[in-house]
Design goal:
This protein is an all-alpha fold and 129 residues long. It has five helices and no strands. InterPro entries: DUF6746.
Length: 129
C-alpha cells in the first residue's frame, strides 16, 4: 500500500513539474492549394506573430495556434518552389516547427530566439514575392 501511495505522489509531482509545458490539442487545418493563398497566409500570419511582444503564456499559446496555419503555407512553398526559394522555404519550415514546439511548451526564451530567426528569414522570403 505504501508503494502505491509513493507511486501516486511521484506521478502527481512529475505532472506538476511539467505543468508549464502542457500540450494543446492539435488542430486540423485545410491544406493550402494556391500560390495566392499561401502568400496571403504567410504575410498575414507573420504579421500576427510579429505583433506578439510580451510572450507571456497567453501570447505563446496564440503563437502556437497561429503556427498551424503558417505551417500549411510554408508546406505549400516547400512543395511548389524550386531552387533557392525552395531551400529558403525548407529552412523556414524548420524554424516554424521550432516556434510551434517551444510556444506550445511555454518556453519564452527559446520561442523568442526562433522568432528572431524567423523574422529575418520571412522578410527575405516576402521580398521575393
Amino acid at each position: 500500500m505504501k508503494t502505491l501511495i509513493v507511486l501516486l505522489m511521484s506521478a502527481v509531482l512529475a505532472f506538476s513539474a511539467h505543468a508549464d509545458e502542457k500540450s494543446i490539442q492539435h488542430l486540423k487545418i485545410a491544406d493550402v492549394t494556391s500560390v495566392e493563398d499561401a502568400r496571403k497566409i504567410f504575410i498575414e500570419k507573420t504579421s500576427e506573430i510579429r505583433s506578439k511582444r510580451d510572450l507571456g503564456a497567453d501570447e505563446l499559446q496564440e503563437i502556437h495556434v497561429i503556427t498551424y496555419t503558417l505551417e500549411k503555407s510554408v508546406e505549400f512553398f516547400t512543395l511548389n518552389l524550386i531552387g533557392d526559394k525552395k531551400k529558403l522555404a525548407e529552412d523556414i519550415a524548420v524554424v516554424v516547427e521550432n516556434i510551434h514546439i517551444n510556444s506550445e511548451r511555454n518556453r519564452k526564451e527559446e520561442t523568442r530566439k526562433y522568432l528572431n530567426q524567423y523574422f529575418v528569414m520571412a522578410d527575405t522570403f516576402i521580398k521575393g514575392f
